[in-house]
Structures are given as structure tokens and as C-alpha cells.
């Protein structure tokens, strides 16, 4: 059952597109919500649209019939997405952002 939920919700291309479209409308760019990384700025315009879409509510906590809202999703670069999932209790996007900023300020 969880595999089905994973495939349907996490791989929902329409939901991912809506989240990306929302970010483009509001910010004009797709960038990591934790560190600000922008794939197309770094690697060129041919990679426009490359970014991970993270579920802020773990899929295993959702009840049958729950709907994923755009506010339940976050745009993350692959590094920050991996850091979010690096602990058994996920770090929040805000926690990863704080850690990134703290490390950047030390440098």
C-alpha cells in the first residue's frame, strides 16, 4: 500500500508541475528553498525545471483520502533534499536552511 501511495503522490507529475509553476509565478525562478541554489543559473538554461519536490508531510503519516496541498511541498536541490532525509526524524526545510546559513556565516 505504501508503495502505491509513494508512486501516486510522490510521482504525481501534475502536482509537481503546479508547485513549480507556483514558484515561477511568485519568484520568477526555481531555486532551493533551503540554500537558494538555482540549477539553470549554475548549469545553463537547458536544465530549466530541474529541482526536487519534497513532501514536508511524510507519506507514511497520511491517512487514506488526505490530499497533498501545494503548501505541503518544498522545492529543494538534491543536496538539501538529502540532508532533510539524513536523520530518522526528518529535518524540516527551515532547519536545513538555518544550518546552511550558519555554516555560510562561519566561512
First-residue to last-residue Cα separation: 46 Å
Number of strands: 2
Bin the strand percentage: 5-15%
| Approximate shape | globular
Instruction: List the uncertain runs.
Output: 1-9
- Give the count of helical stretches: 5
Characteristic terms for this protein:
mainly alpha, two-stranded antiparallel sheet, DNA Binding (I), subunit A, 107 residues
Please give a quick description of this structure.
With 107 residues, the chain is mainly alpha-helical.
Write the layout of secondary structure elements.
Elements (H helix, E strand, L loop, with lengths): L1 H9 L2 H15 L11 H5 L8 E4 L17 E4 L1 H7 L8 H14 L1
Antiparallel strand pairs: 1-2
Protein name: HNH endonuclease
GO molecular function: endonuclease activity; nucleic acid binding; zinc ion binding
InterPro entries: HNH, HNH_nuc
What does this protein structure show overall?
The protein has 107 residues and is mainly alpha-helical. It has one domain: DNA Binding (I), subunit A (Orthogonal Bundle), CATH 1.10.30. Helix content is 47%, strand content 7%. The protein has five helices and two strands; from the N terminus they run αααββαα. Strands 1-2 form a two-stranded antiparallel ribbon. It starts with a helix and ends with a helix. The N terminus is likely disordered.
